[in-house]
Amino acid sequence: MNHPVRFGRLGYCRLRCPDLAASTAFYRDLVGLTVARESESEVWLRCSDKPADIVLEAGPEAGLAGIGFELESDLELERALALTDASGLGPQRLGAAELAQRHVAAAFRCADPVTGLAIEFYAGQTATTEPLTGTVAKIAQLGHVVLNVTDLDAAHRFWVERMGFAMSDRVAGLAEWLRAWPNPLHHSLALLQSDRNTLHHINFMVTDIDDIGKAMNRMKAAGVPIVFGPGRHLPSTSIFLYFLDPDGNTAEFSFGMELFEEAGARDPRELEHRADVMDMWGSRPDPRFGKGSPIVPLREVANHG
Predict the structure, then answer these.
(1) Domains of the chain from N-terminus onward
(2) End-to-end CA distance of the chain
């Protein structure tokens, strides 16, 4: 397998929200994130030592407005820039003001060729020493983002064959779970064949299995729909709980995940299209599961505000 660049991690997910106050309250008070920066138009929330893990922006309609991936170094970032340029994606370097806002040394932005989603690749992000104030859950990190895509084969060509993500598991023609190589997590990105390009879900990894049960009861008490679980995935082996945010986006708490060594990792598995692949415990998803917001095209992101 060719890995032309070395990734560090999934950096952030940007969501557009019609009711910014309601979305902020949900991710702060029920999910347990810490507000790092807040204005009338944008809220940054953290669950790590980075400036932001989730960015909420005000907008007339809900949408997935971007994701970011951190590269291991400036050299790796330049390699990623060359790859996206060779793919005809017209990557654009971020200016000094945007770099300072994001606390990064270098970055560029391009559109995912299948969905049009704004993707930012960056390197040299400064950690923050500000404490996390969320108390309702012990969140370890933003774990992964999953996209519904209209052309899984084309998405595979970009993320795996061009950018060098490693496939951990797949259901042929339906789903792929991808590592941001050499990040050890079973997946930082997953792709599902669909008739629309939308957000499927975003994931937060918790450090204590009790956080799964506590979240279930907390969400129920707040009237938040639980749309899948608790259960256990066969891919990744994670114990999970899925629930809906105020805009109908699916969010996940998970505990435990298969980790891969950089060298000598197992081959990707070909999994069957069966219900117990998604939940070994036998629960079944609500019809609203994974029916998230549409993807906001990069041109609209660039013109936002």
Answers:
(1) 7-130+295-302 (3.10.180.10), 139-278 (3.10.180.10)
(2) 42
